[in-house]
Amino acid sequence: MSSVETEKTPENPLNTADSTHGTDSSETKSAASQQSGKADNERKDDGIEYLPYTSEEQLYPLAELIAKGLSEPYSLFTYRYFLNNWPDLSFVAKDKETGKIIGGVIAKLEVDNKDQKTKVYIGMLIVDETYRGRNIGSTLVRLVMRAALHRGVDMITIETEVTNTAALNLYQRLGFVRSKKMIKYYLNGNDAYLLKFWLKPA
Fold first, then answer.
1. Which pTM was predicted?
2. Domain containing 129: what range?
3. Number of domains present in the structure of the chain
4. Is there a domain that residue 6 lies in?
5. Average pLDDT of the segment spanning 137-152
6. For a tag site, which of 20, 34, 53, 117 has the least CB within 10 Å?
7. CATH at 93
8. Which residues contact 91 (CB under 8 A, 6 or more apart)?
9. Is position 170 within any domain?
10. Amino acid 186: pLDDT
11. Residue 11 domain-assigned?
12. How far apart (Å, rounded) are the C-alpha atoms in residues 82 and 99?
């Protein structure tokens, strides 16, 4: 699945070290709390309102944004599956002046069949091209991190194309690390990185 955050960020090569493995639970939760706290600070500024997903009135403009910005957009059925089952894990960003939805993140809860660890999987993250560079993408991810922390899950995961430097840099700044590289993961033939943020020790 494609999950591309197209907000502009400074180049900063992603650290391949699995630095959060073995980290004390209180430290990882503290890191997540700090990130979710930053979401509050960034929400105070520039005419952007962040809202939880509540209805299909938000779905159609969000789906249109994703279709334009992601390499492999989903069907409306897939969006509804995520949003109807886990509405507390999805958020939209809206321009206060125009009322236009200009970004969003859609996530779901999963349980690993092998070790029964719970995770929040971020399936889609998008910001309107004309609103990039304003920390909207990072704020949306931090809102998901807060929701995941509230649910008590073990980790948060996301995939992105290896060529999407902006997304990789953004996730690194938020504390995600590369878990593995998936060869020819996307339909366009591009490879992907699986990125993880641990909320509990691995």
1. 0.78
2. 25-198
3. 1
4. no
5. 96
6. 34
7. 3.40.630.30
8. 50, 51, 52, 53, 104, 105, 140, 143, 144
9. yes
10. 85
11. no
12. 24
